[in-house]
Write a structure and sequence with these properties.
Length: 270
């Protein structure tokens, strides 16, 4: 199975034999399992303070003629706080218990709860290979709403000079030459999410654009990250979530020629 290698000017340069990872069977259920495993392990633990809602109530004695007693008042035996008092007469309000205003929660979230999901090493590698194979299928890439109507050959492989692009304007110029202007226009819009999420570090909703896969640390990792929606990863750092965001296979991936050679020579994920 061969694929064309393009220059950074958008012209066909040569052909390259695709590594075995691209011929893997596409298995959406396995990809989903791997993505959920990544997401579950990155989930931040949260929970209520164990003493929340329990600090204000006081135990009231139930003995006759005791100070502050609730004996003979025909009220339930729960912890209460004193709102007012005149001599031996008290005004109470229920506290501490779950059914009282200002009391604790009945079943609060607990920080010790473990959300992480494990996955076998072989399954994880197989899921990544499956997601890699999906990037070479145009119909799957189009299903993810990427604007690729003018591109006919997949996967998109570019000569290794792409890794040396050190300016964002050069990367944008390159993307327009390989007919991805409409894709960059699609991802350039970001939406403000409604509700309380604006206060919790996730104010904007950004569309997923192309993923650049390079062979090693290079200038492209800094220059391309300024383009909204794009991501850059070394080939050895790939995972199922990068290749299939939201567990949907078929992300638009731009491979460098050296990254393809790394896959072949080192047999990564196989």
């Amino acid at each position: 199975m061969k694929a064309s290698v393009y220059s950074i000017t958008g012209q066909k340069k040569s052909q390259i034999e695709l590594p075995i990872q691209f011929s893997e069977e596409i298995r959406p259920e396995l990809i989903k399992r791997a993505v959920l495993s990544i997401q579950s392990n990155s989930r931040q633990k949260y929970g209520a303070d164990p003493l929340a809602g329990t600090k204000q109530g006081e135990a009231t004695p139930k003995r006759r003629r005791k100070y502050r007693t609730t004996y003979g008042y025909g009220i339930s035996r729960i912890k209460r706080k004193i709102m007012w008092h005149r001599g031996s007469r008290f005004g109470w309000a229920g506290a501490f218990v779950a059914n009282a205003v200002g009391g604790r929660k009945a079943f609060p979230p607990k920080s010790e709860k473990n959300f992480s999901q494990k996955i076998n090493k072989k399954e994880r590698k197989l899921a990544i290979c499956s997601a890699i194979a999906a990037t070479a299928r145009k119909e799957l890439v189009e299903k993810r709403n990427h604007r690729i109507s003018e591109i006919n050959e997949f996967p998109i492989i570019i000569e290794s000079k792409i890794e040396s692009l050190s300016k964002t304007k050069d990367v944008l110029n390159f993307l327009s030459k390989i007919k991805l202007e409409s894709e960059i226009k699609r991802t350039s819009k970001k939406k403000i999410r409604p509700g309380i999420s604006t206060m919790r570090g996730r104010k904007y909703k950004i569309k997923k654009g192309p993923l650049f896969v390079v062979s090693k640390k290079c200038p492209l990792q800094k220059s391309a990250k300024n383009i909204l929606g794009t991501e850059i990863s070394a080939v050895s750092d790939l995972n199922a979530e990068l290749l299939a965001p939201g567990a949907v296979p078929g992300r638009l991936v731009i491979w460098s020629e050296n990254a393809i050679k790394e896959l072949e020579e080192r047999r990564i994920f196989k």
